[in-house]
Amino acid sequence: MLNPGGSTDQGRLPVIVGVGQLVNRSEDPAGAREPLDLMIDVARAAEEDAQAKGLLERADSVQVVNTISWAYRDSPGLLAEAIGAQPREKVYTAVGGNTPQWLVSRTAEAIVRGDVRLAVIAGGEAMRSRARWREAIQQRWRRWAPPQQMLGDTRAGVNDIEVKHGAHIPARIYPLFETAIRAHRRRSIGEHQRRLGELCARLSQAAADNPYAWFPQARTAEEITTVTPENRMICFPYPKFMNAIMEVDQAAAVIMTSVAAAQEMGIPRDRWVYLWGCADAVDIWYFSDRPNLHASLALTLAGRRALEMARVTIDEIDWFDLYSCFPCAVELACDALGIDEDDPRPLTVTGGLPYFGGPGNNYSMHAIAAMVERLRREPQRKGLVSAMGWYATKHSLGLYSGAPPEHEWRRLDSAADQVELDDAPHPTLVEADGRGTVEGYSVGFDRAGEPEAAIVVGRLEEGSRFIANTEGDREMLRWMTETEMVGRQAVVRQDSEKGKGLVNIE
């Protein structure tokens, strides 16, 4: 089944015509610039990049990715006013690292339908400035105010049971996926850590060559895996150099229009990059309810739809930017898309969130901008960007080329895929006593480098899912980092005083 909004008219093909990026590394509080100002700058940079004057004021759609470091009542309205636009559509998204690609895909469909003529899509964060100079910036930045509206699913990414067991931040959740992946691949802890180091070293090399990267430094696999005071263990199996770094000041924007409008506005053809295929999908919302912790059915189905729409195979893609908040996100994408982990093709064009930087929800806007720049240099090539929101929950993919597609542009209907995802057999998370089997675990460390808490996820014998914390001292927690826990038998009991489940692993 096909969605409405397709077109065989080449003039209606959606194109990205301008991109802008910036990084603000100021060491002076006077140089701490708020997210809106960063977005204004990258929107103007995107206009300059398009090599056509007066584009911004023609925007009939202004869209802003959800900002974590500072909130405004009407971000897209403020941005529109600053760039001289009077848009019919103003969009501000809900939380999600998938939203930059989701907005580009949504906008492309609106352009094909004729509902949007020119769109400016931007996002920016100033997490570092806010963390360092909170008092100073409150005197200078625009008034903080909760957003008046958000587009997209506004549900929290975790449920109450997950929260009370400490599984409510990415650094504690993604290691659960990693230990499950390691066990699924039947690797020892040492071998798997070595492979993670090799994967991350590839990402850091891309960051070293990127002028917009927060850490433009190539690291070796040994540097990344060796625990030191600089590279302390955050949550096993991830030391610091494997974690997304959000304390950055970065922004990116794109300008989109149709082929016909680009011609009318005098935008040179060598600026145009086409979106060949795109898809979105949402996994079972809470990670503790999913069929397993080592794979993503939503990412598999979204990848299939995006490739089908573009009428290409995964082997025809030249460059990737796979969402990389933690190594397991890249592994999940490779597995879902059918990319061998030793594939020589670039897995990132930015450097990834641990090395390029993780500017909140807007990282993938940088990936799209970097992909556009690369495809302009080699227009016959193809690139794929994958974006991810919450805890491997929301997925958006885009497939790009500097050459126009020769077939009809029409999004494939993913409604059937979402029904399949929502109806997939999966366990129910319960709070109950019983015996079970460990499926994934993580061990959190304090700043002194000592293990302080463990989260264990598994199946009870009757098939339900449990999440619990371990009982025991630091010696036992260290043992959990040296010996495979996945597959071991566990005894779970609910502690009424502590209000959570506790588990002993046998």
Summarize the structure.
This protein has about 500 residues and is of the alpha+beta class.
Account of the 3D structure:
- This protein has 506 residues and is of the alpha+beta class.
- The chain has 3 domains: 10-156 and 246-422, Peroxisomal Thiolase, Chain A, domain 1; 163-242, no CATH class; 434-505, OB fold (Dihydrolipoamide Acetyltransferase, E2P) (Beta Barrel), CATH 2.40.50.840.
- Helix content is 32%, strand content 22%.
- It has 15 helices and 16 strands.
- It has helices at 35-50, 75-83, 99-113, 127-132, 134-140, 160-164, 170-184, 189-208, 221-225, 259-264, 297-310, 327-337, 363-377, 415-422, 474-482, and strands at residues 14-23, 61-64, 89-92, 118-126, 233-236, 238-239, 249-258, 273-282, 319-321, 382-389, 394-401, 434-445, 451-460, 465-470, 489-495, 500-505.
- The strands form 2 sheets. The protein has a 9-stranded mixed sheet. Strands 12-13-14-16-15 form a 5-stranded mixed beta barrel.
- The longest helix has 20 residues, at 189-208.
- The relative contact order is 0.17.
